[in-house]
Amino acid sequence: MKKWDGKSRGTLLGYRIFVFFLKNFGVRSAYGVLYFVAAYYFLFLKESNRAIFYYFHNRLGFTKVKAKISVYKNYLVFGKTIIDKTAISSGQRNQFSYEFDGIENLQRMMAGGKGGVLISAHIGNFEIAERFFSEIDFNYQIHIVTTDQEHSHIKEYLESLADRPKTTKFIYIKDDMSHIFEISEALSKNGIVCFTGDRYFEGSKFMEEEFLGKSAKFPAGPFQIASRLKVPVAFVYVMKEPKLHYHLFARIANAKHRDSQALLKAYTENLEQMLARYPLQWFNYFDFWDDLE
Prior knowledge:
The protein is an alpha/beta fold. The chain has helices at 12-25, 27-44, 46-59, 64-89, 103-110, 129-133, 152-161, 179-188, 220-228, 260-277, and strands spanning 97-101, 116-120, 142-146, 168-172, 192-196, 206-211, 214-219, 233-241, 245-252. The strands form 2 sheets. Strands 1-9-8-2-5-3-4 form a 7-stranded mixed sheet. Strands 6-7 form a two-stranded antiparallel ribbon. Helix 1 runs antiparallel to helix 2 (27-44), helix 2 (27-44) packs across helix 4 (64-89) and helix 9 (220-228) crosses helix 10.
């Protein structure tokens, strides 16, 4: 079964349909479209179905029936996070409520003046975190390190809608490793550097750690870079709650300097805790554990 290819799922037409409903009928009406979209995914996307069914059945221990139902529910929740992200980016932020758990950890982390590294995952809706930071006087320059290679026409369309804060910049991973210098420069100015730590490309460096009862591969970059820099590191997730509510979690990573394996282990343990609470919000639709033929 194929691995992650660096491209985000979705088509330009699909995004345009969601935006049409958002602008004309509101967030909840756009949610209504998802029942048909999720049904299509559930019926026809065999590879992603196998991958997410494996997660529920083999890794979380759900029965086959519960796992099947959870696959459909997972697509629904995933679609809702995309709609929410688009709505918030296009000026409908006030339709949502939110709460923080551990924001004092981030404030204390940044008070040191060395900058900080945030590591998240493809769970929940981390991309909207920046929208909430500004409302609690957390106005630091945010640099998002990305390997995302999704089609440029989708990116351009979403950027045209976005009311993106000026405090956000992107650092793109390059073959010549120049992104390392960009990361160092960002931290030297007391900025925040954000990684996702759960996806790697075939052929790129990786590390292995037990995750949900089985060894899995993770990108080496975020953990090696974060462990070698003398800056604080935190795990941050933004999880979707019922209705239009979000919950941000921030936990300081406790690992020795230059011990990237210990940092990865702390990350996987924290990620397991989040998924125990929000099992439907795992959005990796590929053979994550190398266990599918």
